[in-house]
Amino acid sequence: MAIKLINRCIYCGELTSVRRRICPECMERIRRSRLDSFLDFCPVCGFPLVDRLYSCPNCVRHPGMKTRLMLSYKDPFARSFLELYKFDGRKEFSRFFADLLSECIEAGEVALPVPSSNASLKKRGWDQMDRISKDLKCPVARLLVNNYTGSLQSKEMNEKERIEFSRDKFAVDLSPLRPCGKDGSRGKDGCLGARSRRAEAQVSGLSGKQSVNFDTPLVVMDDVFTTGSTMFAAYSVLVASGFSNVRTMALYGEF
Predict the structure, then answer these.
(1) Alpha carbon distance 165, 46 (integer Å)
(2) Minimal CA–CA distance to 57: which of 69, 68, 45?
(3) Which tens digit of pLDDT belongs to each residue from 177-228?
(4) Rounded to an integer, what distance in angstroms lies between the CA atom of residue 215 and that of residue 200?
């Protein structure tokens, strides 16, 4: 006789046998808050659109950046999941968020979580996106470095301040990259050598069995997309460092 494993829904406490530990009723409410359930998308960058008759704001503000957003941050029920996880320290929600993101990861892509600032780490004691990345069903690389040393958080700023705040916020840590050659020439596998700024390389400490080079498709992941300035800053510094295939994804968009 088959035995059903019973858990309690981590949100409402009802009994459930669902692996994600979210009961069917709560999952249905989450489904209704997914942006792809009630919005159209830009055919160029994938950004949610209320009406295709208007110009895509993401294409205008962040040219070249493809973006996928999952849930509506303005939906109180969906937003409460993030608040419980991020602000109340309910880390059991990590797998739920990781499963949402994993649904949209394509074969061969490598995830890059956006790192928290030192101020956020000091306040919460942990990095919410790094925690989620450990439950993703794809390789993960940690190449982004958050340079911000101030105490003001982006949620406390207006749009103009957010844009200024995000400028030079990130750097790319290439120290984990091991160049394929030593003399600047291409090796047998087609990799460039150490003298090239665009040297293709392996990533040590990569989660999952996959190497990374400058043509590897990367997905920058964050929790909330408001103006997009933080995401665009991370995207831009990766492209400027030589990575040629970068897109972005966030759990929530403010729609």
Answers:
(1) 25
(2) 45
(3) 544 444 433 333 333 333 333 334 444 446 665 678 889 999 999 999 998 9
(4) 8
Contact between residue 192 and residue 164 where contact means Cβ atoms under 8 Å apart:
no
What's the domain count of the chain? 1
Whether 18 maps to a domain, the answer reads: no
Interhelix angle 76-86/94-102, rounded to 10 degrees, is 120
Closest to 112 (Cα-Cα) out of 65, 169, 71, 172: 172
Q: What is the pTM assigned to this prediction?
A: 0.82
What residue type is 50 in one-letter code? V
Structure confidence at residue 20 (pLDDT)? 63
pLDDT at residue 239 greater than cutoff 80: yes
Q: Read off φ and ψ for residue 172, nearest 5 degrees.
A: -105, 125
Domain extent, residue 232, equals: 34-253
66, part of any domain: yes
